Amino acid sequence: MPTADATAAARQAVERSGAWLAGLAADRFADLDSDGVCLLLFGLACARALTAAGLDGDAGGIAPRLAERLAGDWTAAPSAIRAEFHAGRFVMPLLVAAVSGPWGDAGRRLRGICEREWRALRAESTADDNPILFWTGERLISLIRGEPPQPLRARWQMEIESMAPPYAVDPPAVRQLTAELALLSAYGMLDLRVSHPVDRYVRETLPCLMFIYLKDRDLETVCLLLRALHYAGLHAAPEFSDGIEFVLQHNSRDGYFAMHSMALHLHAVRSQQDLRRSVFLPLSVSALWALAECLAPMRAPLWRAGSLPHRGDTDGAR
Amino acid sequence: MALVEQAQRAKGRAVRWIRDRLDCFNPLGYQHTLKFKFALKASVELALQCALVHHRAGEEPLTEMTAFLWTEVFGHPALQEYLLESDCDLLAFGFYGSLRLCGFEDLVYRARLERLLEQGYPVMAERMPSRELDLIYSLTRADLPLRGLSPQASYARSLLAKHPPLYNLTDQDAYAITHTLFFLTDFGQAPNPTFSSDDHAYFAWALPRLLQYYLHKRDWDLSGELLIAMNGVGLDHLPLFREAWSVLIAAQGEDGSFAGPAVDESAVDAQEGTDAAAGVEDPQKERWRLFHDNYHTTLVALLGLHLSLGGITLPASTRGGQFGISARD
Questions:
Q1: Do B216 and A242 touch (CB under 8 A)?
Q2: Is 60 exceeded by the pLDDT of residue A308?
Q3: pTM over 0.90
Q4: CB atoms within 10 A of CB B32
Q5: CB distance B247–A167 less than 8 Å?
Q6: Taking CB atoms and an 8 Å cutoff, what residues of chain A touch B167?
Q7: Three-class SS of residue B274?
Q8: Using alpha carbons only, how large is chain B's radius of gyration in Å?
Q9: In 3-state terms, what secondary structure has residue A153?
Q10: At residue B317, does pLDDT exceed 60?
Q11: Which of B213, B227, B246 to mutate to test the interface with A (most CBs of A within 10 A)?
Q12: Lowest-confidence range among A39-53, A199-213, A261-275?
């Protein structure tokens, strides 16, 4: 497990990162798209998990305003959010709704809209098309309803059961592997129950994959693998600590998480691209999610959602 | 198809690829200095391949290649003068040592090497430890005095002996590690009793990790070198060892070569005054480019196939070492 030093360093990094997210939200409040708002909200929820006293000042106060803005967007254009769900892009909205407890009435509205859209989607779709995606949706809806996590009863051939050796696993496969482990472990709330060969595969492969992507300095994939190691309970692997250290090293003084900063800088100079929204925001949210789950699992936002008995709609003041 | 059969076929195809390009290995066939130097290094590496296979039980000697190197390359007075008088002492000793092991001898050249050693410069020059081990290896094979050089002392100064963390290692560091092991284990043919238990623990941890990494990068050159190195320190029993060989064999091109890592050849282009962007298809240039890109990886793969998989069907007792797969399969 990470040392006390790592946890203290993480707290400082997360406080900076929370402030950076809040700054971005304030600067871009009017013109951020819904995806951007979702990322900001989920990132702020993760940052909050790692700061014992919650986020200070603007960082603490911006989330309810963002949630209000998102609920307003979804209410004003229901067809847009419905289209997102039908296109399979519902995981981030559901994640946001699952951690929306602290955001009062706006949070209640977000949860209500997600439940409604999920019901509509389920009426037309089955798990057959993409079981992992479908059951991830089910898992998150269950958390939104405040139900305690249960082992998955559905059964299908998972990627993890026929996975390639580590040297043949590319970043999309890492993403799939992490999604499967998140689903099976209910985001780390349940012990992983898999067959002996799969357990062996996971134990042998995940540390090796972490080594490969650490050596490649691939922050995005390292964040995914950190969560995967956590879901698999492989906290004692040296690569778990190495991964946390690596993520923390990539927290900039301004608070965002980034890699290959010089290349990004040069690219941005040429393309006039807003790196904050297109690169730093998604990377920072990935990093904060990984740090929250790995360093403060019992305060991580999804754990809180899953451990509250029938939170219902009365916990807005939490 | 069983791995042994795959290996045999891969070996045959790689040998044919090299045999069909022997002229490319001849530095005397090039007008441009960079190509000359490149081909000289390639010919010395081919000679090493021939020497390592020459006395190996169950392996057909690479007679045609060895004869070519002796008569067409090494035997040329201008080349010998270049080897002895230019700043390339590793090649000068290595070329001679390899061809000598294949049964050739040139006493005049040998006397020049002995004189060089007496003068002292070759053993005084500063080198990376892995390159110093290269010189020691060549001197030993040529039956020439080490003049104070010591493999143990060189190893102690090497990157590998310091058991470095792996995350920061560059490709060049990885080559330094594999080469250190090559020269200390006679390319896997002789176990080295001077490695400590800490060394072996480090090898068992680091080498498979690096192999996984370079397989993931599809860098067949370093993957092949790591396989030879693993064979040299008794890690050929790992399931990964066989898996990796399967991956490497599957990566062999249809022409029999193994693709090397991408390299920058702009310096050669610039010297030749050619314009790669012009898109003019020149068969000779394409032949050179394929040779340039693939020869080293093909030699590495072939050496690995000869040394670590070549004797797989032979009884362990005929292979003169404890590292044979056959003993464990």
A1: no
A2: no
A3: no
A4: 12
A5: yes
A6: 211, 214-215, 242
A7: coil
A8: 19
A9: coil
A10: no
A11: B213
A12: A261-275
If 0-12 CB within 10 Å is exposed, 13-18 middle and 19+ buried, where does residue B267 land? exposed
Phi then psi for residue A251, to 5 deg, are -90, 120
Residue with tokens 């290959």: A260
CB A43 within 8 A of CB A285: yes
Asked if A167 reaches chain B (Cβ–Cβ under 8 Å), the answer is yes
Cα separation values, A110 from A70, A76, A91, Å: 8, 13, 13
Name the residue among B166, B167, B212 with its Cβ closest to that of A166: B212
Check if B28 contacts A (Cβ < 8 Å): no
DSSP B93-154: HHHHHHHHHTT---HHHHHHHHHHHHH-HHHHS---HHHHHHHHHHHHHTT---TT--HHHH
Q: How far apart are CA B109 and CA B80, in angstroms?
A: 8
- For residue B213, the distance in angstroms to the closest alpha carbon of chain A comes to 5
Q: Inter-chain contact A242–B167, Cβ cutoff 8 Å? A: yes
Q: Where are the alpha helices (DSSP H) in A186-218?
A: 196-215
Distance CA B194, CA B155 (A): 10
Q: Are B180 and B229 in contact (CB under 8 A)?
A: no
CB contact under 8 A, A168 and B209: no
Per the rule left: phi > 0, alpha: psi between -120 and 50, beta: everything else, A187 is left
Residue B215's nearest CA partner among B182, B179, B181, B240 is B240
DSSP state letters, A133-150: HHHHHHHHHHHHTTPPP-
The pLDDT tens digits of the residues spanning B137-175 come to 999 999 999 999 999 999 999 999 999 999 999 999 999
**Tokens read off for B8:** 């045999």
- For residues A163 and B204, the model is more confident at B204
Question: How far, in Å, CA of A23 to CA of B46, rounded?
Answer: 62
Longest dimension (CA), chain B: 58
What are the backbone dihedrals phi and psi of residue A257, each rounded to the nearest 5 degrees, phi first? -105, 135
Mean pLDDT over A155-163 rounds to 76
The residue written with tokens 């001077």 in the block is: B194
- Count CA within 13 A, CB hemisphere, residue B277: 2
pLDDT over 50 (residue A314)? no
Number of other residues whose CB lies within 10 A of the CB of residue A311? 21
Residue of A212, A214, A242 with shortest CB distance to B216? A212
Is B184 buried (19+), middle (13-18) or exposed (0-12) by CB count in 10 A?
buried
Q: Show the beta-strand stretches assigned E in chain B.
A: none
**CA torsion A251→A257→A260→A262, rounded to 10°?**
-80
3-state secondary structure of A257: strand
Residue A168 forms contact with B (CB below 8 Å): yes
What are the structure tokens assigned to B214, written together? 């370079």
| A210 CA: distance to closest CA in chain B (Å) | 10
Q: Which amino acid is at B115?
A: R
Q: Do A211 and B166 touch (CB under 8 A)?
A: yes
Residue located via tokens 């005054």 = B273
Best residue in A208, A210, A215 to probe B by mutation, most B CBs within 10 Å? Answer: A215
Best mutation target among B173, B214, B216 (most A Cβ atoms within 10 Å) is: B216
The SS3 assignment for B81 reads helix
Separation between Cα atoms, residue A310 and residue A300, nearest integer Å: 18
pLDDT tens digits, one per residue of B99-131 = 999 999 999 999 999 999 999 999 999 999 999
